[in-house]
Specification:
The chain is an alpha+beta fold. It is built from 13 helices and 41 strands. Strands 34-35-37-36-38-39-40-41 form an eight-stranded mixed beta sheet, with helices on both faces. Strands 1-29-28-27-26 form a five-stranded mixed beta sheet. It has a four-stranded antiparallel beta sheet with strand order 2-3-4-5, with no helix packed on it. The radius of gyration is 28 Å and the shape is globular.
Length: about 750
Amino acid sequence: MYPLLRPRLAVGAFAAAILTLPAGAAPAAAQDLRPFTPEDALNVVSISVQDITPDGRWIAATLRTRRDGMNVDHFRFGDPTYISPSTGEFVLVDTDSGDRTPIVGGRVQVRGAEWSPDGGTLAFFLRDGDAYHLHLFDLAQRDVERIDLDTELDISASSRLDWRPDGSGLLIDLRAEGWAESARAAFLEMTEGPIVVHDGSEPFLDWDRVRMMGGLARPAIVTTEGDVDVLLAEGYWQGIVQSEDGRWLAIEGDKPLKTVYEGGGGSENRLLRMDLQSRDTAYVVEPTEDNISTNWAPDGTRYVFEEDDHIHLRSIFEDSAAVITEAFAGPVSASDTTALEFDAVRWSDDGSRLLVDTQQGWHVLDIEAGEFDLVVPLTEEERETANHVPFAWSPDARHLYVQERSTEEWRTVVRMLDLESGGVVAEETFSPDVVSGLNLSDDGSRLLFSTSDGDHPTDLYVTDADLGAASLRDARRLTDLNPWLDEVYVARQELVEYLDVDGKKQFGILYYPVDYQEGRSYPLVAEVYEDFFANGFNVNLNLVASRGWFGFRPSVEFETGFPGEAWMKAVTTGINSLVDRGLVDNDRLGVHGTSYGGYAVNLLVTQTDRFAAAINISGKVNIISFLGDSEKITTRNYRAAERGQDRIGATLWEQPQKYIEHSAVMFADRIETPLLLLSGEGDWNVPATNQREMYYALRRLGKDVVWVNYMNAGHGAGRAGGEADWFDHWNRMFDWYETHFQEATEDRPITENGARQR
């Protein structure tokens, strides 16, 4: 890997290391552990890092469990005034000691946390009732102050929160006067009437019109004392970039024009600059229906974009852009005369350099010197077998930090490259550990990341950023979020490789049952969707494994126009590979999926009867009625069917037979597998009425079917309801599988000891 890089330091110890970070006390033997339960699933804690001080010393983070996001009012989906519950502990983490203290006591709902440029103050929005309010946390005093704004305008529930470069105030979004009343009235008009008129001559679908109201805002600057300076009239202001000196704003606007069904468009885009001293505003890019792509330099006054396979650089003070890669154009190589294509990847922190990707690999483009150096050669094969992600530059632009994640095995490599000498300073290999959230502090001194052993939930670690002196192996563990899991069975995972019917290599993740003994075969429950590869803690499959069953997440490969075949081709062959190994009892197979996975389950059981039981969770059964029965998500279902996830590849009127072929309800008479349907009455994505079609069809045909509709739940059925729904959902799934697994063994011969043959 990276053959043109010349090692600056000896890295053999780093390259050979398989990193296993400390994971607390050694767990008890599997037979001494209790099963993982639905109650446990609600108690698993995860951490979300909100922001890190520039010196990397302090972290603002939120700790949440599954309970914290329950009790959503799914019937208010599409209501611009509704804020879904998402509470948790809002904490301060000391990366020196690992000490964790509350910023605000109790379980609260916080968003948008950001440290001031000097790292002394944390700004955040705290929910109080149906509104968010600005708060400041003084790090030195450990004191939280609510900032009451000198305005009658409310803060937008989706407001940006950006400090001014000098720390004197913040850039936020406010709602216009009367916005809440208008938005709520528009929602009620659509849901309660008493008369609702839909007129095809109007530019927008009515639900588009209502939902778009959530994007309206009035950007403003507020001081730390609460003084408010409103900058712009109400509009759709997507991005606002501040110049380093704080004088200039670059403002990206998007004015919707009409509802569109195909591709992009339908909006008028613009880019403006504003002088905050004079308030003069001018167009950088005049209003256009073309997309405006911006990759901003750290100074906030320049950006790059790709056009005609080249990179263009533009200043907000210039009338046009300059092509900055034209001098380096040419063929990929002597044997490959394809022209180079240039993609901007990442600016250096000082804005002097740009990391550029071509078919040859990664280059560093020195903007001022006009130098273009290949620093990381990447072949097509290397790109296919691993994902390469540059996640940070050092502040002096000398070092580049890279994460390489294999696509064929559970292996992640973290490298620190010296761009001046062309060498690898250090690298560490994680296998099968899960590594994520790599984050370099602004001053370049500390590297923060999350990791686990591949089976357990992740925890936070920190180390010195100079990996030439301090190994990731020496990282300090900052959190131990779920120590109670040491007493619970956590499923051992295995990456499974197999061939589908077409002979194409696929991967799946196998979860071992709680009582696994080599030489025995066990029931298997497959959870299907699309592709599965990465390991890590998974609630659903841990619950399956704790019932004494194998859990399996097989991957599939789709062909546009024929998506219904994919699951039959790959799910069954993946299971066959496990039956052939003697792990799985072929008579006791179950399958379930959620949303698109539920749709897959229903199509799958129209093609095979090898499963003892199947469960469709919030998955459609009729793609024709699905096109228009989820009105709140407007045109998404048309897009999904025609060229999106459903992969039909044509409209209903161009290929009606394709829509029939991919509607399981049309082939309900072929289903021999007992089918459990789980839905939520408040499902805004796949309404319960769609699944009801399958229940009525199978009942009419005298098939084994049960339909459970959770009246206060949404997309995900009981898992998207309250606690009572959650437990009922899982218990019904367990009972369904256990009942039908038992029935599958009733015809087996009796052994000499009087038991059924396993």
